[in-house]
């Protein structure tokens, strides 16, 4: 299955938190969007890998993703090395996305920045025919995304552009809340964390508002790009 967009997260819930509105917006426009999680999030303070798997499946349905897969890399300990790059290349070639949405280049969680470099390098190597990979015993064709954009997971990075998600903020929050073990639940008896506080979802809404203000819209999600962004019509810019 060829995808228009492949959103990649270091952990289940990264996509929902950082680019869920963008996924919803493009699904609504008829694009095929898939999600690829690098790890199962097994080191998370709350929940388990099994509960995260179930939650991720439910969240993907809310977002309208046509596919969601998990590479099962070691949470906290995966590396940007040949082994991990080749495994990721197999999935990039499997879905041949035009656009990849990747983790933030810099963030407080070390997995995010490391994942950003892994995705960036694997995306480039995926386009080299002499890098051979097989899927189900068959040699894959080289394929490189047309563009790769890094979503922003904090407020200390200035975006190069932002996507208006105003009509989709409530649905984005619904997808985040699908991770019942991870976020605010007054009935939970698990240890409290930064993201399980009721204020954390206020932060997510505030970040969307923060990125929306310069655009003159209510809510937006910010992205960085190492590649120059071009348009054929100035009316596409808001």
Architecture overview:
The structure is a single chain. This protein is an alpha/beta fold. The protein is 35% helix and 17% strand. The protein is built from six helices and nine strands. The strands form two sheets. The chain has a seven-stranded mixed β-sheet with strand order 3-2-1-4-7-9-8, with helices on both faces. A two-stranded antiparallel ribbon has the order 5-6. The mean pLDDT is 96.
Helix fraction? 25-40%
User: What name is given to the CATH topology?
Assistant: Rossmann fold
Give me the number of helical elements: 6
| Cα-to-Cα separation, first versus last residue | 32 Å
What's the order of the H and E elements? EHEHEHEHEEEEHHE
Strand order of the largest sheet: 3-2-1-4-7-9-8
| Count of distinct strands | 9
Largest β-sheet summary: 7 strands, mixed
Counting helices, strands and paired strands, the structural category is: alpha/beta
> What spatial form do the alpha-carbon principal axes imply?
globular
Tally of distinct domains: 1
CATH class equals Alpha Beta
CATH superfamily: LmbE-like
Strand content: 15-25%
Instruction: Provide the CATH architecture.
Output: 3-Layer(aba) Sandwich
